[in-house]
Fold this protein.
Amino acid sequence: MNATQFTLLQVLSQLGTSPQSALVRVLAIDATTLSRTLRPLATAGWIRPADSADARETRWELTPEGLRKVLRTRPAWEGVQHDVRARLGKKKWTLLLEELATVAAAAQQ
């Protein structure tokens, strides 16, 4: 699983069932990249299309196996983040987060 796939699973675990368009906005990625990211996660059985009142929009949800995957993977992910924060130091970590927020905001415009 790559970082984008894990992030998508994390977002779905936090937001719950979400329209594909909302995932594009939250992740600040284009629709094609999102579609390429969704495919292997669905094939693995970690996400599935959810019922939607609007047939024009696909909604996605975590499966029980997907939630288990997030819960099993999260400690390793948090460990990596802890290591990176420690290497960068508090000041550089804070600057990085600020810059990433700026980039994400610009991507959504």
User: Anything to note?
Assistant: The chain has a mean pLDDT of 90. The helical segments are 3-15, 20-27, 31-43, 64-107. Residues 28 and 104 are 6 Å apart (CA to CA).
